[in-house]
């Protein structure tokens, strides 16, 4: 057994080897390796997907059994009044221009129609094909 003075002398001795920093392997690297392995095994990936869908369905059923009564009450605990559904709902909007195949409807002359056309032009300008410059043209 070492005496207290011997322990004190030992603690004063400087180590000749530099201390190495302890570096833990990040969890993200392990997760990335696991994801890469799953990409290789598509049967396992399909099994995991099916399990996730089943778990979501079970969770929805459990929520409905335990907590669905809350949808009938407001935040203060008072019973909500159910609004009756309309008998007829028009297909076409009277406020927003209707579009088909990304083409603006018949209200293009309105201020809103012009704004939508302008926004469509600027949002899709980066995805349009451009003519290649001269040096990039095939010979």
DSSP helical segment count:
4
Please indicate the percent range of residues in DSSP E strands (runs of 2 or more). under 5%
Taking pLDDT < 50 over at least 5 consecutive residues as the criterion, the unreliable ranges are none
**Molecular shape:** flat
Written description of the protein model:
With 139 residues, this protein is mostly helical. 45% of the residues lie in helices and 3% in strands. It contains four helices and two strands; from the N terminus they run αααββα. Strand 1 and strand 2 form a beta hairpin. The model has no long low-confidence stretch (mean pLDDT 76).
Key structural traits:
139 residues; mainly alpha; two-stranded antiparallel ribbon; 45% helix; flat
What is the topology?
Elements: H1 4-12, H2 27-40, H3 42-67, E1 99-100, E2 103-104, H4 111-123
Antiparallel strand pairs: 1-2
In summary, what is this structure?
This protein has 139 residues and is mostly helical. 45% of the residues lie in helices and 3% in strands. It has helices spanning 4-12, 27-40, 42-67, 111-123; strands at residues 99-100, 103-104.
């Amino acid at each position: 057994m070492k005496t207290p003075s011997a322990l004190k002398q030992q603690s004063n001795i400087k180590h000749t080897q530099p201390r190495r920093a302890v570096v833990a392997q990040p969890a993200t690297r392990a997760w990335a390796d696991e994801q890469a392995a799953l990409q290789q095994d598509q049967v396992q990936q399909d099994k995991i997907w099916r399990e996730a869908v089943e778990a979501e369905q079970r969770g929805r059923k459990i929520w409905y059994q335990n907590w669905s009564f809350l949808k009938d009450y407001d935040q203060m605990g008072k019973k909500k009044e159910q609004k009756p559904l309309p008998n007829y709902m028009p297909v076409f909007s009277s406020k927003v221009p209707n579009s088909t195949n990304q083409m603006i409807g018949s209200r293009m002359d309105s201020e809103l129609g012009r704004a939508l056309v302008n926004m469509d032009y600027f949002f899709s300008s980066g995805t349009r094909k451009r003519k290649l410059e001269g040096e990039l043209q095939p010979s």
